[in-house]
């Protein structure tokens, strides 16, 4: 009988997943408040896992379509850093295995910093292939941010070390790709491959900006990643732009002669 099992033992069984549906039904009849609290938490966590799997399967739709066409190497591309006043724009290209499953994988902006970094390590370890490319602030000034973003994306494909069968790209089309492609608006929320790429691009760029921070700590790049925070703008007013600032961006030009 369940009511003869201690609450601590029930928690241990629930945490380990060593339960049956009949056991759960018995728990529902247990009047102990501690048991009902455990059961509520368990059901909430189980529903979260169900929702995560459902969301993941929905985000596999574009990849699955390509698999049905006979394509096996389906890549996703996304970028990070189009909006900041400083630093490079970074792009990532990721090919996941057909049967890959990473619960909670989503657009990097929807994840906490700790979760992004955890997923970054997991994706790099598990991916069939991945490549990271970037365009410097000087290239952004030379080509403009839109063309520099395309450049970073093409470089990420070149870094794969192989030729994909098809590429899914977040809200962009690229010239000169060696395979077919599809542009997806809000692709980082609609494709697991693009979502994975968004995580790699974001984490890698944050890492680069922490390195730049060591040379130019007055701009607080470690915390703002080059975005136009009030503290960042104040530092620009006081110190002028660094070599990593995008001098073609209007807020930076304002302080070019400080």
Kindly list the characteristics that best describe this protein.
about 260 residues; 5 strands; 3 domains; about 50% helix; five-stranded mixed beta sheet; 11 helices; alpha/beta; Nucleotidyltransferase, domain 5
How would you describe the overall organization of this protein?
The protein folds into 3 domains: 2-58, no CATH class; 61-211, Ribonuclease H-like superfamily/Ribonuclease H (Nucleotidyltransferase, domain 5), CATH 3.30.420.10; 215-253, no CATH class. It contains 11 helices and 5 strands, in the order ααααββαβααββαααα. The mean pLDDT is 93. Strand 1 and strand 2 form a beta hairpin. 50% of the residues lie in helices and 12% in strands. It has a 5-stranded mixed sheet. It has helices at residues 7-16, 21-29, 33-58, 61-68, 113-126, 137-143, 145-158, 192-215, 221-224, 230-239, 250-253, and strands at residues 74-80, 89-95, 129-135, 166-170, 180-184. By secondary structure, it is of the alpha/beta class.
